[in-house]
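Feature request, filed as a ticket because there's no other form

It would be nice if the structure record came with a short human-readable summary line next to the tokens. Right now we just get the raw output. Example of a typical job, pasted below so the devs can see what we mean:
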Amino acid sequence: MSYGQQQCIMFRPVSHSPAFYQTSYRHLVRSVNMGKINEDLQRERNRCTFNIEELTNFKDGSPEKTKLRKQREKMVHDIAEFYEGTPEEYLGHKEKYEDAIKKHVPFFNLVRKLDKKGESLLAQYSDHIIAMMASTPSRDGTPLGGHWVVFMPAILSQGTEEQLDYWLQRASDCSVIGTFAQTELGHGTFIRGLETTATYDPETKEFVLHSPTLTSYKWWPGGLGHTANYSVIMAQLYIKGKCYGVHAFIVQVRDEETHMPLPGIKVGDIGAKMGINVMNNGFLGFDHVRIPRNYMLMKHAQVLEDGTYVKSVHSKLIYGSMVFVRVVIVFDMANHFAKAATIATRYSAVRRQGQIKAGEPEAPIMDYLMQMHKLFVGISASYAFRITATKLWDTFHDINNQLIGGNLERLPELHAISCCLKAISTADAASYVERCRLACGGHGYMQSSNLPFTYGLVTAACTYEGDNTVLLLQTARFLVKTWQQIDSITLTPTVAYLKTAATDCSPWRNTVEGIIRGFEIVAMGKISSCVNSMKARAAAGASLEDAWNLTSVQLVAAAEAHCRVFILTTYYEEAYRRAAQVSPELRVMIHQLVEVYAVYWALEKLSDLLRFTSITSQDLENLQSWYEELLLKIRPNAVGLVDAFDIPDKILQSTLGAYDGRVYERLMEEALKSPLNQQPVNDSFHKYLKPFMRGKL
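Raw output as currently delivered:
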């Protein structure tokens, strides 16, 4: 008997049914302490020096708000549809959308049943809708989110009282589903370049919507593909041959009964993307589609029946809805920071790899200082952006009330700070989520870790609702104008530091206050440098537009520096103010979180500090030592800190980050859900692989 024949006898397979394999694998998984908390993770929790529930209440705002959040989460998690069927990563593009509709219809049915009596719509958004949407187990977005997040706010900020009475009632009841269509195939953040036209016909008292080119097709609106039957459309207004710029119109896209596209409407899904594939992003074109005159949103500008155009009192009043969406995005990024930090931190407590000292057992990877460096700043950043978003939300309310009274003084400031906060929060979140994925090694690459899905969500946010570079340049425009008028105007709160920073000659101090002061000087210096650069280029013969363009790299950096000042200042002042009311143990922890965030960014921006401040090489060494000491101080509380985010497993949706720490069992459980594991031999073996191996193709 030949060697090969012997091997064939030794390894002759035993025939088993598919059910046998499933049962065997599941027995293997369940045999390893199923249902118990991983011992390493429990050991970490036992080390925590503060009351986790107290920090959760601090994060939420109060014990009452924590209780309300948990009640909402329970309502959402009781929706059985969320947990049924094949995991979405194994579905095709069409099936993912259909599955998302099935799951999110019962969820948004809950949203529309919320008690709204006696509350303003803005209060409903902040207290109910945004919070409810943050509670969903969805890992890849929702095709219905745009209805609440952009469609209704657009009507709210740009509709007349009569239009609000009609449209908001229908939208709240979900008798219509809407979206917001601004971006076109050929134009994004350059709003003035939009090509879609809305031409007024005074004889019929209608607007005629038209897409004159392929590049004028609306592209990207969430839910537009097959979900929404109405949309707010941004289009160039034409009256008697004259263009009056971009205005907002409500357009019916699909029939309310059959859901078929209406005559003249060309609409569909734009196809698969890097992430957010259940969002049902769509395209939309118009072939001379007519809508009634009162379908133009006319709160700020009107077209009378005879075609007379009544100009807006202030063209920038439309910023209101944009600011609202950007506040939502900053809150959303804080949630993504928390999710990524929870997953990576819990995994780092469970995963053992390598030896720090020879002869010792393999160490949890969180014992390595480099892992602490990767993770802990993100934990702190979640609190930083949550607190900053709350501050922005309060500022939005204050300025919105001033606008109602006719005071527009702080509107440019609000626009500027919301622009840069959206840009910085999304860029930081994208960087940190990827950092967490890499910190989890190969297992972080698994979609079941939920880190790839999360990365897809946050990177998409870097572009939608304003490209980050363009938004930072808008902030820079406000800063340059402010600097040019600094001696002749009263500075608004977010830029008040510029005047004191310009005359600050104090030595560097290695304190949080000293770091903030350093960042103020950096921002002031960068803004001043931008103005000087543009002046020099203009003096050399460049046009103002060319001078601006040639200085754009510096302008973006100046806007980022200004935003860092706002975040650091807000985080420090608000966290310390609120920490005065908590237990001494938690107060120490909160101070450490603020410190590690401030010191981290000081080290990240050393070149700026060296350029503009009096920091010395010895200060830098002390700063590095302080940072490393903070990492070691935070280390015993790392798991407690992410537990305090209080993200239920049903929201976290991660094999690596579950509360019980059963990483390996959960990875195997998820692997068994793969359609490829539903039979021991895939059909392709007999069709293609076996003939290939036998040379019989």
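Something like this underneath would help us a lot:
The chain has three domains: 53-142, 175-312, 320-643.
Residues 3-15 have pLDDT under 50 and may be disordered.
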